[in-house]
Design a protein that fits this description.
The protein has about 230 residues and is of the alpha+beta class. Helices cover about 20% and strands about 25% of the residues. Bound molecules: fe (ii) ion.
């Protein structure tokens, strides 16, 4: 059994815990105005147990976000992987460039995620009382959808850097009009995000086996049997 399996099993014992639906933590406004269209998905910028930070040149413009996150998460920064997602894309009400639906980033993990956007702010659900979710991704997503739609809902000012742990219920907003939108997410995790399609940092080039994506919302970390499928 891997340490990840152990962690997941431990988490399952807390399935009736009413801990979900907390608010994100604001780190304040970071005034960036990205112009270059791009799609970087979970690009590793730091490996585990390392201080070496490697930002590809196109992502250097997000250094103020990276530095703010590094300061906020100083106590765990060195011992975790760090990933940067950066999307500057033409979005429409029908194509938001984000997966739809209520969810919690890093559900059933102790990952931290920091999000930032310059249009159509992320929608958060802050129920009057915290709720429990079944510790199983497909089941929990249905529960999140039900709870999330009930609200109450909240957004934060554009360009606010927000810290989300696995208890923060949110979804991409309903876009009112078409336009360019930049979305940036920095993720801190104990795990290698090894799904096919994730950005590869050629300055780090970790020796990972990559696993296929499923049609549904994917956990960031592939299951071992998914990896076996890819390798066979
Ligand atoms: Fe999310």
């Amino acid at each position: 059994m891997t340490s990840q399996d152990t962690m997941m099993n431990d988490k399952r014992t807390t399935s009736d815990a009413r801990i979900y639906g907390t608010a994100p933590i604001s780190l304040g406004v970071v005034d960036l105005s990205p112009k270059e269209m791009m799609f970087w998905l979970y690009c590793p910028i730091k490996l585990i147990n390392s201080d070496e930070l490697v930002l590809p040149p196109n992502l250097m413009q997000f250094s103020p976000i990276v530095e703010a996150c590094m300061e906020d998460a100083a106590d765990i920064w060195r011992e975790r992987y760090v990933y940067l997602t950066a999307k500057t894309l033409w979005c429409t009400p029908d194509n938001t460039a984000q997966r739809p639906g209520w969810h919690c980033d890093g559900f059933m993990t102790d990952d931290l995620n920091y999000v930032w956007c310059d249009q159509e702010p992320t929608l958060f659900c802050l129920p009057e009382q915290l709720v429990a979710f079944t510790q199983d991704h497909p089941v929990a997503l249905k529960e999140m959808e039900f709870i999330g739609e009930q609200g109450p809902h909240m957004t934060y000012p554009l360009k606010t850097l927000l810290r989300l742990d696995d208890k923060v219920l949110h979804r991409v907003n309903d876009f009112s009009k078409a336009g360019i939108r930049s979305f940036v997410k920095l993720s801190i995790s104990r795990n290698a995000f090894n799904l096919v399609g994730n950005a590869i940092n050629h300055g780090l080039a970790p020796d990972w086996h990559y696993a296929n994506r499923s049609a549904e919302r994917n956990p960031e970390v592939a299951r071992l049997n998914d990896i076996a499928e890819v390798q066979s």
